[in-house]
């Protein structure tokens, strides 16, 4: 089965019912099928060939969804760009993916052969009829960029097989009660976790409502107007929503508020349950195993389990192993491993990184450290590679450190994540200077080098950093000292 098959079937079964809603614009299931067919034909008519990569940079809205699934129908490979990244970061993804085309509303951040900006015009001029390029189930469908131990982004290759398996995981475990009157409210970017909820709702005849930009007010208005039953948020968004003075008065129909992408403070989670009811569902996954390693169901959000990441999905294997590869038992700490048909095929053009992450038998190294409890719930303790998750976005310390070290006054830099109720983790830097400079000057220096979510929220000036015998900064010790100082204060 192909992704296009699901779209065509939904178009036939649900016809004129609303599939996508964005403000006053409504696209039915039948129209969505036709729009993606026409745009798929238009893309191929521009000289693109199946297997070519296409970078996409569009605002949160219907056009982005149409482009994504026109690419699926035409055999092209989606390379989504994040609007919150700097042009330099976006350009890296275009160059690394060897994208032939760019689809967006402005100029591409890097040279490409084909630039497409008039989506409506392309659709209007394209022929009708099915666009049905059959793709090998194990050929690339999309590239999802993540980071590695060096901080240099890597593209996770996800296939049609992995995409359909992700839909299976959602329908069996996460959203088993989806029905045609269900409504998914996309409050987070569709380029991020929220986009994974589109297909499961589409195949069940449920509407997808998109909020172009999140704010508590916009969310509450849309949730009430459209009687949203499902949404996805990162913890930062949940905290902002709970601070809104009108949230307790809102007439909501939510059945599932799915959250993930970052650590969440148990105080925030408990307050959310008190205000919104037993609707919270935690997702633990990563780009290499999209949103599906374990989940904590609403009825499992008891006070003694709020720090748990839940239990494995039905079609997903999870193991905790020692450094020598042994499976560990209850309360033994090791690396979380996972296996399932939804996991990545490989890293794009990085065979060595693939070999380090994915075993020949399909088991995937998550890089996360965890343990099982006596009831089979997973508890995550740390991340092996020091990745910081702030506001639901991965921040790689090395990348931030490189930006800081570009400042002429900075000699050394170490970047860590500190617990933060709003952001999950707060990007914090310790720097050693060779001359007088203000911490605010150094933060400002990062402004045009790093996306907002990657910039240090605070910079501390230290006389020296703790280092290993070979001179490498010890981030863990930096973090421990900062936490001790916070406790002392």
Secondary structure: elements and pairs:
Elements lengths: L2 H12 L3 E5 L2 E4 H17 L7 E5 L4 H12 L3 E4 L6 H11 L3 E4 L9 E3 L2 H7 L14 E7 L7 E6 H15 L8 E4 L11 H6 L3 E4 L5 H11 L3 E4 L1 H9 L12 E4 L6 H11 L3 E7 L2 E8 L14 E2 L4 E5 L12 E6 L6 E2 L3 H7 L6 E9 L5 E6 L4 E3 L2 E3 L1 H9 L4 E11 L3 E10 L5 H7 L12 E4 L13 H14 L1
Parallel strand pairs: 1-10, 3-4, 3-5, 5-6, 9-10, 9-11, 11-12, 12-13, 24-25
Antiparallel strand pairs: 1-2, 7-8, 8-18, 13-14, 14-15, 16-17, 17-19, 19-20, 21-22, 23-24
Helix pairs in contact: 1-2, 2-3, 2-5, 9-10
Task: Summarize it.
The protein has 489 residues and is α/β, with parallel strands linked by helices. The protein is built from 14 helices and 25 strands. A hairpin with a 2-residue loop joins β13 (280-286) and β14 (289-296).
Give an account of the 3D structure.
- It is built from 14 helices and 25 strands.
- By secondary structure, it is α/β, with parallel strands linked by helices.
- The protein has a nine-stranded mixed β-sheet with strand order 2-1-10-9-11-12-13-14-15, sandwiched between helices.
- It is globular and about 65 Å long.
Strand-residue proportion: 25-35%
Helix proportion:
25-40%
* Structural Rg: 23 Å
Uncertain runs are none
Structural key phrases:
489 residues; alpha/beta; 4-stranded parallel β-sheet; 27% strand; 9-stranded mixed β-sheet
């Amino acid at each position: 089965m192909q992704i296009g098959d699901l779209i065509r079937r939904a178009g036939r079964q649900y016809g004129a019912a609303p599939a996508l809603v964005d403000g006053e614009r409504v696209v039915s299931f039948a129209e969505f099928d036709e729009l993606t067919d026409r745009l798929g034909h238009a893309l191929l008519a521009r000289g693109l060939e199946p297997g070519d990569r296409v970078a996409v940079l569009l605002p949160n809205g219907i056009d982005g969804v149409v482009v994504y699934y026109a690419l699926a129908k035409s055999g092209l490979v989606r390379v989504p760009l994040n609007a919150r990244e700097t042009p330099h970061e976006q350009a890296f993804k275009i160059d690394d993916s060897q994208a032939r085309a760019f689809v967006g509303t402005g100029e591409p951040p890097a040279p490409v052969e084909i630039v497409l900006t008039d989506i409506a015009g392309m659709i209007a001029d394209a022929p009708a009829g099915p666009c049905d390029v059959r793709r090998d189930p194990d050929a690339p469908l999309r590239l999802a960029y993540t980071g590695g131990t060096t901080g240099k982004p890597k593209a996770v290759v996800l296939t049609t097989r992995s995409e359909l398996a992700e839909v299976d995981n959602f329908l069996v475990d996460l959203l088993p009660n989806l029905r045609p009157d269900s409504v998914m409210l996309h409050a987070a970017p569709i380029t991020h976790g929220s986009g994974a909820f589109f297909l499961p709702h589409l195949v069940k005849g449920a509407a997808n409502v998109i909020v172009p930009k999140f704010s508590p007010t916009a969310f509450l208005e849309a949730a009430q107007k459209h009687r949203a039953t499902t949404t996805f948020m990162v913890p930062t968004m949940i905290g902002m929503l709970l601070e809104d003075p009108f949230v307790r008065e809102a007439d909501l129909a939510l059945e599932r508020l799915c959250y993930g992408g970052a650590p969440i403070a148990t105080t925030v989670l408990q307050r959310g349950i008190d205000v919104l009811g037993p609707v919270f569902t935690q997702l633990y996954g990563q780009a290499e195993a999209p949103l599906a390693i374990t989940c904590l169901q609403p009825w499992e959000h008891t006070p003694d389990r709020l720090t748990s990441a839940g239990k494995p999905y039905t079609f997903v294997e999870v193991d905790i192993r020692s450094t020598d590869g042994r499976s560990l038992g209850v309360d033994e700490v090791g690396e979380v491993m996972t296996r399932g048909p939804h996991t990545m095929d490989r890293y794009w053009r990085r065979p060595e990184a693939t070999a380090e992450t994915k075993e020949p038998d399909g088991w995937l190294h998550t890089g996360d450290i965890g343990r099982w409890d006596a009831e089979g719930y997973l508890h995550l303790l740390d991340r092996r590679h020091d990745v910081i998750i702030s506001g639901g976005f991965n921040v790689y310390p090395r990348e931030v450190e490189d930006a800081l070290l570009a400042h002429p006054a900075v000699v050394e830099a170490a970047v860590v994540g500190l617990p933060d109720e709003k952001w999950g983790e707060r990007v914090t830097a310790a720097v050693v200077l060779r001359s007088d400079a203000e911490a605010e000057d150094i933060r400002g220096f990062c402004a045009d080098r790093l996306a907002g979510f990657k910039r240090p929220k605070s910079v501390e000036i230290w006389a020296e950093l703790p280092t290993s015998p070979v001179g490498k900064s010890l981030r863990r010790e930096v973090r421990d000292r900062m936490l001790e100082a916070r406790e002392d204060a």
